[in-house]
Amino acid sequence: MVLYDSATLGGSCSGSSSSSSSSKPPPLQQRQQTQQDIDGFLAGAGYRVRSSELRKVAQRLERLETAMVNSPADLSQLASDTIHYNPSDLASWVDSLLSELTQPPTCPSEFIMDPVSNQTVVSDAWTTAEPHMPQVHQNISYEQQSLNNQLTVVPAMEEDSGIRLVHMLMTCAECVQRGDFSLATSCLEDMQGLLTRVNTVCGIGKVAGHFIDALSRRIFQGIGGGSVNGGSAYENELLYHHFYEACPYLKFAHFTANQAILEAFDGHDCVHVVDFNLMHGLQWPALIQALALRPGGPPLLRLTGIGPPSPDGRDSLREIGLRLAELARSVNVRFAFRGVAASRLEDVKPWMLQVNPKESVAVNSIMQLHRLLGSDPNRNSPIETVLSWIRSLNPKIMTVVEQEANHNQPGFLDRFTEALHYYSTMFDSLEACTVQPNKALAEIYIQREIANVVSCEGSARVERHEPLSKWRTRLSGAGFRPLHLGSNAYKQASMLLTLFSAEGYSVEENDGCLTLGWHSRPLIAASAWQAVSDGTADFPA
Amino acid sequence: MARSNEVNLNECKMVVPLNTWVLISNFKLAYNLLRRPDGTFNRHLAEFLDRKVPANANPVDGVFSFDVLIDRGTSLLSRIYRPTTAEEPQLNIAELEKPVMAAVVPVIIFFHGGSFAHSSANSAIYDTLCRRLVSLCKAVVVSVNYRRAPENRYPCAYDDGWTALKWVNSRPWLQSQKDSKVHIYLAGDSSGGNIAHHVALRAIESGIDVLGNILLNPMFGGQERTESEKRLDGKYFVTLRDRDWYWRAYLPEGEDRDHLACNPFGPNGRSLEGIKFPKSLVVVAGLDLIQDWQLAYVEGLKKAGQEVKLLYMEQATIGFYLLPNNNHFHTVMDEISKFVSSDC
Lengths: 541, 344
Fold this sequence. Notes:
Chain A: It is found in: Nucleus. The complex is a heterodimer of chains A (541) and B (344). Chain A has 541 residues and is α/β, with parallel strands linked by helices.
């Protein structure tokens, strides 16, 4: 079993990291250094500290140590109760620990208590005899490593057939990019042949089969993609539900978002959740129950669920709403539901949500924002439009969960390569889950995503996944600031995983966000945001 | 001029650069939060706080990396680091396991430190260190993500190391062209150094050739309190108490520090006389409180007639090799490079 890194294998002529579209951005390290004077060595260890602040951070560390040594009660509180945030920002981490302590240490920073003899010792090492160590060999390229280059799983490469299959997939995709469809077609035939010699029940054979199908679709049906994503709303919901059951990605998304929303709503009595994709409302029972149990009692909860219109006269949104209302009633939470039917998220206008100025609003987007990234030169950018009206609602929190992948690159081969890695990893993780009837349908759910990424273009291609680093830039540019997810959310997510899933899943902290992945390749990323309160935002050009 | 108390606390700051002090103190304080008095470990917080980096098949400074699942049963991952050559600037997905092209390519199996409980193969500090080893030694580096204490006690870490060694030894694409064999070195810092020793023993017993061991501040100990332990306790980031905690977490319950895992040349150890043990490069930091055990290890090897080179870095503290901002770092890296290349 091999895990590979995706990055820009096989095709990017500029050699750029997969996060950039055409040109290579300056190494993050260099940008930060010129702008903020970040210590290069500590950056290589994963910490961002400004060189000009090193001394201050050192003093704070000393103070913290003193406090921890002097008060074991404080130590144990820091160890167990304190919630930690964003450890990469070392200065703020140390400061947050210091502020947690019940008794802030009263020793001025010039003096340190000798823990052994309790005698005061003059500590002026920082101001006088600091050793002069020449900082040679300053390595400035560490951060490049973490620029969006991710791990993937490509199963069992021991077989020659498996390796050949991958080679041929890449060759075929390259032909498609070049427009050499006759060669691509003969590749397809060869691959079909090879598939018969490879185990297609699991491993590379299974995922390769889906990619071969998607390539066929692209070559023979053209990039409209036929009815790849045209399944009925009912079908989509069914597949989604099975994907939810079969593996932990959606559970993680819901759980993490709910935790953040719960915390954001603390102390608020009128709250309104806007769900960008209600589906069967699977996310909400847990939040309703958590709100019911919160100290001080539950708030008045309004839920606005957005979803596609039902074709057959049923109002499926309303049906879900009624079920949730019943649950809320049973736990004594005052609840109101509103459904907003829209085929596309960009068709929703804020007035439809009927937000009351006195409410605290949470906007919840589980894998919806990427669908707004298709650009049509005749329209305003949908993502900008939607982010703008979200911001105008001034939500207390916006929870965003997205696939942690770079499937929106303009070059087809790059996208194909990235997707091959990503979905191989995902399929691999699925195989490790217990066999259930759900699994087959869950696989179809994933297969549809693959088909959309590979065989569609233009407005038909809605699965335009972008990685966390890009979302950060985009959301910051649109006037949002991150709300960090802390060690409590991390711990609960980890524990949830051990309850639900096979070993191999891992939760990671990434600059205030949490990711869930398979064997150290993150596959899904959860983050939380708040509108910046000043006047204007800078929209990306 | 210094009163003894001043020496205690100020010395520490005098001997390391400011950023090193910040880094190691940060680890020290964070680790204090993770070790519970009852012997359990706050694993969730540990993983949350640990700074990790993903693998990167895009070469950075001539090195690329990818992760491999070596053993499904134990979820044993390893991160493989390879040098790029001028002829292959762009990599194809199926070429990550392309055969090594040189007459001789050293393969260094690396075991990260962390006193058996902390860190991972994808921890930022170790990813950085492994990349340096690749460039330095023109080697392939295999960093093993072994199971950690206290959840997994002795001998899990050694078992994982052994599994990794067998896996490396059986990869056709890692064989040097000259003799179609894999040229294996074992390396590690702190607990990783201890693991390297024990895995080397197993290799010898099973007839797998290991060309050399590189032990950076290896973690050894014993029941007795040595002079260096008493003199340096608490002075340079490390305390005897935390050392004791980690041994209690790793060793089988009820065992003391004269267990052969901890004290290979102690009362329960075995002599290596007559055994074809690999040559060893052992780096000892002069301000490391366990240096007496490390020096005893070197003596034990010498007494058994084994080839060993000791690098005693007088003014070095633990972790000096993590940041390239001091002279000890460069000295040691040069020696490692010579150690590995002398077989080419």
